[in-house]
Amino acid sequence: MRILLTGATGYIGKRILPVLVKNGHHVICCVRDPKRFNPPESIKSFIEVIQIDFLKEETLKNIPKDIDAAYYLIHSMSNSKEYEKLEEITATNFKNHLNTTSVKQVIYLSGIVNEDNLSKHLQSRKNVENILNEGRFSLTTLRAGIIVGSGSASFEIIRDLVEKLPIMITPKWLNTKCQPIGIKDVIKFLEESLLN
After folding, report:
1. 178 or 109: which leads in pLDDT
2. Torsional sign, CA 55, 58, 59, 62
3. For residue range 126-137, what is the model confidence (pLDDT) as tens digits?
C-alpha cells in the first residue's frame, strides 16, 4: 500500500515509519524541512520524501493522488495564542487536499477528550477530529493520554521533575487522574488500525 505519513519528523512519526516499511508499505513522508529528516539508511529505498507545509496550500500539490491511507500525526505544541487557529487551518487544508486523492482511510492520533470539560489544547484536538471527519475518507481516531517512552515530551518533563525535585508541593488542581500508554502500544494500535 501507498501510505502518506504526516509528522514524519515527530516522536510518533519516527517510530511508526520503520514499522510501516517492515510491513511492506511504500511510505510518502511529509516534512516541512527535508534537512531535518534523517531516516535510517536501511529504509530510504522504501520511502518518498516530499516537502509539505499544511499551512501553505501551494505546497500541497506535492502530495501524490494515488495514496491508499494516511496518518495524521500533526500536533501543534506551541504556546502561541494562535495555535488553535493554526491547527484548524492545517486540518482543513489536509482534509480538502486528501478529498482530491484516492485515499480510503485517515488515521488520526488525538488526545483523550470528554464532552464536558476540555482544556484549550484538547478542545483543539477535538476540533481537528471534527474537521477530518468531514472528509470523503474513513476516519479512524485513536485517543491517547500521556505517551510514555524515552524521548517523548511528556515523559522527559516527568523524568526531569522526578530527578530534580524528589518532593514537590503541588496545588490541589494538579491532582488529576490520567491514563498513560506506552509508546510501543501506541505504535501497535496505529499499525493495527490500518484499513481496519
Report:
1. 109
2. positive
3. 889 999 999 999
Question: What beta strand segments (E) does 26-184 contain?
Answer: 26-31, 47-51, 69-72, 105-111, 138-144, 147-148, 181-182
Residues 153 and 47: their CA atoms lie apart, in Å, by 26
pTM reported for the whole predicted model: 0.90
Helix (H) or strand (E) holding 98: helix 83-98
Written out in words, the top-level CATH class of the domain with range 2-146+181-192 is alpha beta
Alpha-carbon distance 68 to 64, whole Å? Answer: 10
Q: Whole-angstrom Cα distance, residue 131 to residue 129?
A: 5
Cell (9 digits) for 26:
511504500
Amino acid at site 70: A
Q: Side chain identity at 183, as an amino acid letter?
A: I
Query: How far apart, in whole angstroms, are the C-alpha atoms of residue 39 and residue 100?
Result: 28
> What is the number of residues in the chain?
196
Residue closest to 106 by CA, chosen among 77, 135, 82, 85: 135
126 and 132 Cβ atoms separated by less than 8 Å: no
